[in-house]
Specification:
Length: 355
Amino acid sequence: MVHPKLAIALGDPAGIGPEVVLKALSALATAPLSQPCEVTLVGNRRLLQQTCDQLSRLPNPISLAAGLSRPIIDVPLEPELVQDIVPGQESAASGEASFRFLQTAIAHTLAGEFDGIVTAPIAKSAWKAAGHHYPGQTELLAEQANVERFGMLFVGRSPHTGWTLRTLLATTHIPLRQVPDALTPDLLTRKLSLLLDSLRQDFGIKQPRVAIAGLNPHSGEQGQLGREEIDWLTPWIHTMRQTYPQVTLDGPIPPDTLWVRPGQAWFGTAPSLSAHDAYLALYHDQGLIPVKLMAFDRAVNTTIGLPFVRTSPDHGTAFDIAGRGIADASSMKASIQLGAELSAQSQISQNIAQI
């Protein structure tokens, strides 16, 4: 059995990232993953120890020694920077720290030391305050890996039925008013190609069924509520059906009904066979509102198109509860699990290709 190596970047140290990482790893000490892996933390040892100390002093103490015992790449931070980092308080200092943590994890991974990266949450505004102007971690990962073809795929496994929800966003961190202009046949062709490659290579689905969302209410109502579907989205889907005859492409499906079947498959109110293998949402909230409604504590954000695996919890820094010991580590555990599975699958595929 392969044992992939994962780096876990600790995210914003003023948020819940260090807490959920340590909680997840402590839990895995007694309930190991189904896919074994080697884990190395990437962060600042002093800040990590401070998190453990703070949680151990709570009225209901939390022991995270098992998580802290993991190997760590200790990212150096100036003493004055560390002093400015306060749990629960977003700042340029915490943004700078989280940026360095991720940069370090990427560098070691590109050097071949790790098969994948699991990233704890960061605050985009804290990055900006520190002078790092990226829409998010995804864009930095793509830039450092020197790839232009990448996407955000959200994956969640239902605790009720075992069915897996997979949602790819065509556009990500841009204002809503820019979405119609950003959406083009070329963009969607690249995103669909990425999605199909991931379904085949990462999940072993050779003839996938993919649902594609409409942009406008009721998918435009024959042009009465918007013309994007008539002018180019529907013709583009017809072209893609000819390009990928082995794939079932359904759409454009009205956004308000697109999520009925996956909701039924997730909660078990209808057979999961009626749902699709993946869903292509056209903009951020169109895809993530239903994902978080169904799978907030279990969904995993994975960046497809990189030369290595990247997974991340589908939640933010939660500064309002940082340091209180109540953060839920379920999504982080799922991120480590999926990171290990995808990394192992990648190793197996590479070994087969070399035979």
